[in-house]
Amino acid sequence: MKIMKIFRSLAAAAVLVSCFAIHAHGAFNNNTINGDLNSDMTVDIDDVKILSDFLINNECTISGNADINNDGNVNIFDLIKLKRMLVSSDGYTGFIKADGNLLVDETGKQYMIKGMAFGNNVWSNPSYPPENLHHTEESYKELADMGFNSVRFYINYGLFESDSNPYTYNEKGFEWLDKNISQAKKYGIRLLFNMHYPQGGYQSQGNGEALWTNEENQKRLIALWTEIARRYSNEPSVLGYGIVNEPVVPIVTTAEDCLTQWQKLAQQITDGIRSEDENHLIFVERLCAAKDTETGQSQWANFNDENNYVRVNGDNIVYEFHYYEPHIYTHQGFDWAGTGGYDYSYPDENLAMSYDSKWENATFNGDSADLSDGEWQYLESSFMNINNDNYKILSLVFQAQNLGKNGVAYADNLKIDEYDENGQFIKTVYYDDFNKSNLFYFWSNNSSGNGYLSTSIGYDDNTSICIYGTTDDANFGKSNISAVQGHKYKASGYFKVVNAEKDAVVRPRVDVWSSDSAYVLDKNYIETSLINNIQFSIDNNVPVYCGEFGAGINCFSENRGGEQWVSDVIDICFQYGINFNYHTYHENSFGLYTNSPLSPPDQRNDSLYNTLISTLTDSTD
Known about the structure:
Elements: E1 22-23, H1 45-57, E2 73-74, H2 76-89, E3 97-99, E4 102-104, E5 114-118, H3 137-146, E6 150-156, H4 171-185, E7 190-197, H5 210-213, H6 215-232, E8 238-242, E9 248-250, H7 255-274, E10 281-285, E11 289-291, E12 298-299, E13 317-323, H8 327-330, E14 348-354, E15 358-362, E16 377-380, E17 384-385, E18 391-401, E19 408-419, E20 425-432, E21 441-444, E22 450-454, E23 464-468, E24 474-482, E25 488-498, E26 505-514, E27 518-521, H9 523-540, E28 544-549, H10 562-576, E29 579-582, H11 606-616
Parallel strand pairs: 5-6, 5-29, 6-7, 7-8, 8-10, 9-11, 10-13, 13-28, 28-29
Antiparallel strand pairs: 1-2, 3-4, 11-12, 14-27, 15-26, 16-25, 17-25, 18-24, 18-26, 19-20, 19-23, 19-25, 21-24, 22-23
C-alpha cells in the first residue's frame, strides 16, 4: 500500500517530508524516555506502531518525545531511527508469520519482503566464509538506507560440514551466521538463510544429481537444516529458511515423478525444521526443471497445473518462484548462459513473447538459391499475409534442406520488411548482419548437420551464418518477431551455396505462429507473466515470494533499458503485493557491485543503484 514516500537514500536524507513534519517544541512532553510514546517507561514495538499511525493519520495521541533524532521536527526519519533503536538493542520482538496469502509482522500488520541477495561466493565451494570481502557491516546499512528490509543470505553446506566428516558441524560457519545476524539487526535487516549449494551439488545448472540419487545426501541436508533451526529458533532477526535453491530433479520414470521426489524431500526437511523451530517461515521453491540423465538435457517446463509448485504440510510455509523473463533479455551477453553476443532492449514493440505459440505456416513459394552458382545471391521470400486473428508471431528463417554431407550454405544481411494492407512498405522490423553475434537457433528434423557463426566469410564483410551437412529439413531461425493483423511481411538476404546435393533447398522464409496469449516485450508482458507465477497463491490462499529477479550487467549499457525493466518488475510487485528479492548484491554478472566477490564491494552499477532507490522509496507497506 502506498502510504508515503520514505526517503532513505543518503542524498535525500536532508529532505524533510513536510506533509508529515510537526515542530516538536511544545508539542510533546520531553521529560520522558526518548522514543517512549505511550508513557510505559519502555521503548518497544508499541511505540513504533503509535508513531507510524500518527504519521499516517495524524489522529492518535503521543504522550512522549517523538522527535527521535532531535532535529526539531517529527517525520518519517524519526520512525526509521526508532525502528533502528529497537532492533539494535534487543532485536525484533516477534516473528514474521503467514496469514492467508499475506505475511504479517508481530503487530499483525502486513509485512512485505523487500530483499537483496548476498551470494557469498557460494558457487566456488569456499573453505572459509568470505568475511569482510563479499560484504561488510556497511553493506547492511547501505541496503537499509536504500529501502530494503531483508537479505536472502546464500549458504553452501561445505561451510558447516565436510563430506569426509558428515554430521559434525563446523563452528566457524555458525559464527559467521551469528556475526551477520548481529550486523544486520542494527539496521533493521532480517536474514533469510537460503541453501544455495546443498549436499550433492549446486542445482540450478543441473549438476546436483547426487542430492537426488544418494539418499545419504538428503539425510545430511535434513540434519543440517534441523541443526540450523535448533540454533536460531528464537532469533526473530532471522526471517526464515529457504530449504533448496532452484531444484533440478533427475527423471526416474517420468518428468511428473520429479515433482513427487521434490515434494517428499521438501516435506522431510520441513518436518526436521519443525522438530526444533515452530517460529520461522519456511520457503519452498517450485520445481525448476526435470533432467533427462540419458541426454543430459534439463526440461524447463511445467509438469502439473500449478506451475510446478509442490504442497507441503505445515504452518508458515511460503512458496517461491524466480523471475528472469525473458531469459534472452536478462541474461544477454553471458557465454555461461548460452547468450553470448545477444543484444536486446526493453521495451521492444517488435519482440513478441508467448507461452502457447504453435507453428502454422511459412512462405514456401519465394526465391530459392541457384545451387550451381557458388557466389552470393540476393533472394526474397513471397509475402506472408497476417489474415488470421491467431497469427501473432513471426520467425525469420534461413532454410538449408538436404545440403548433403559436404554441402555448405551461408546467409548474410537477413531481414524482414513490413508492408501495409495495400502493399506499401512500412519499416524493416528485423535486420541482422551478424557483425556482433548470432541470435538464430539451429534446428534439424533428423539431427543431421549443424550451424555456426562464420567469422571468415560474409557478403560485404567477414561474418555470416553457416549451415552444413544436413540430410533433411533444417534451418536457422530467429523467432519472437511481433506480427500486425492485416499487414504482410517479406524476408530477404544474401545467400551462398557450395557443394550442395542437387535436391537441396536454400532460401529465406517468413514463418508464422499462432498464439492465444502473445505480448510484445513491455510492462504488460511482465505483469501477465508475474501473475502466472502468483496464481497458485490466489487459488490456495498461501503466500508466495519472488526469491530472485534481476537483470544482468549488459542490460544497463547501450540504452538496453535495464533500469526500466527493474523498475517495472518492482512496481508490479508492489501493485500485487508480491514479496521480492533482487539478485544480487555483489557478483560479476548480476551484481549491484560487479567487481570480484573475493574483494570488498567497490565497483557499483550506479544506474541500478539509483533505480532501486527511486523505486523502493516511492512505495512502502
